[in-house]
Amino acid sequence: MEPKNKILLVVNPISGSFDKANLIKTVETQLANININIQVYETQGEEDKIAISNLIKEHKPERILVAGGDGTIQLVAKVLKDFDLVLGILPAGSANGFAINLDLPYDLNEQIKIAVGSKIFTVDTLELNGEMCLHISDLGINAELIRHYEHSNFRGMFGYFLQSFPTLFKSNYPYKFIIEANNYKYVKKGVLLAIANANKFGTGANINPHGKLNDGKFEVLIFKKLSLFQIIKTLFKNTKMDSNFVEAISTEEAIITCKKPIAFQIDGEFIGKRKEVKVKVSDKKLKIAVSEHFNPA
Ligand SMILES: Nc1ncnc2c1ncn2[C@@H]1O[C@H](COP(=O)(O)OP(=O)(O)OP(=O)(O)O)[C@@H](O)[C@H]1O
Questions:
Q1: DAGKc domain spans which residues (predicted)?
Q2: Which atom of ligand 1 approaches the CA of 46 most closely?
């Protein structure tokens, strides 16, 4: 019998430091069992957007699956701005911060079932200086850390830890941020300013308890000081944030400025140093396949 559907699977071969051959085989086998044919595209690290876009135009898949980390999900999400297609996610990055917010299971077979399933969740996307952001971006110490990490040979969570020590010593924190939002000008000092569409970092830490992926808003979070105790508490999923440590501004639009250029990252990808970031909720939404039990609380 002719396979009834076609699915495009976009795989990042280097994300999360593991070989994707087994993953691809498992997806192929499981979907062949339900008569779905897949086409695999392995990212190259350049010109991927145009290649994926051309594959969609040529083969007209009914759904896109992505196996990679936040950077790969974001890459595919950018392409999907031009197509009305649902995205299924097979988390295969080092931190998988965005997937954690969607409560996807750890088991690959379960993930595949969900990725081709019928429950769809529509999420907001943000525009930061015109660039798409799905999850969390920041200015300051975490972006600095990602910059060092990208220049190192380590991938995976361990890389973050190794890089954190030189980063902390080299940074010029605290920074002074001016945030124009809700018809108000806030002047704040902090080590890190995060722009959060979602509420959880890749560690599972709930840094933004008020964040909802589909509320038409985002939060600007100012982390005031580098407190080892607070950082450890945050990493262990503490949901009550101490206002001496972090402050949140909820808004639909914001202009963030600082006197000197500060390290800036979007969804885990280092962008460069910036003095101004303009943020707004985009009118482009993203449709994602989620578990039947998913509740966007
Ligand atoms: N074939 C390739 N060779 C080298 N780099 C690649 C290739 N394909 C994609 N990339 C790079 O991979 C990065 C995206 O990785 P991604 O964020 O998905 O994984 P990760 O960093 O392991 O996970 P996470 O973001 O969840 O921590 C991008 O910088 C992209 O340029």
A1: 2-132
A2: 31
Asked if residue 167 lies in contact with residue 144, where contact means CB atoms within 8 angstroms, the answer is yes
Ligand 1 atom index nearest CA of 70: 25
What is the reported pTM? 0.85
Q: Return the closest-CA partner of residue 157 out of 17, 251, 286, 291.
A: 17
ipTM rounded to 2 decimals? 0.96
Burial class of residue 138 in the structure, from the number of CB atoms within 10 Å of its CB (0-12 exposed, 13-18 middle, 19+ buried)? buried
pLDDT at residue 60, rounded to an integer? 95
User: Is the pLDDT assigned to residue 162 strictly greater than 50?
Assistant: no
* Ligand 1 binding pocket, CB closer than 6 Å: 12-16, 43-45, 68-72, 93-96, 155, 202, 268-269
Q: Kindly list the structural domains of the chain, giving each domain's residue range(s) and its CATH number in brackets, ordered by start.
A: 5-118 (3.40.50.10330), 131-281 (2.60.200.40)
Q: Does 256 have pLDDT greater than 80?
A: yes
Higher per-residue pLDDT: 171 or 71: 71
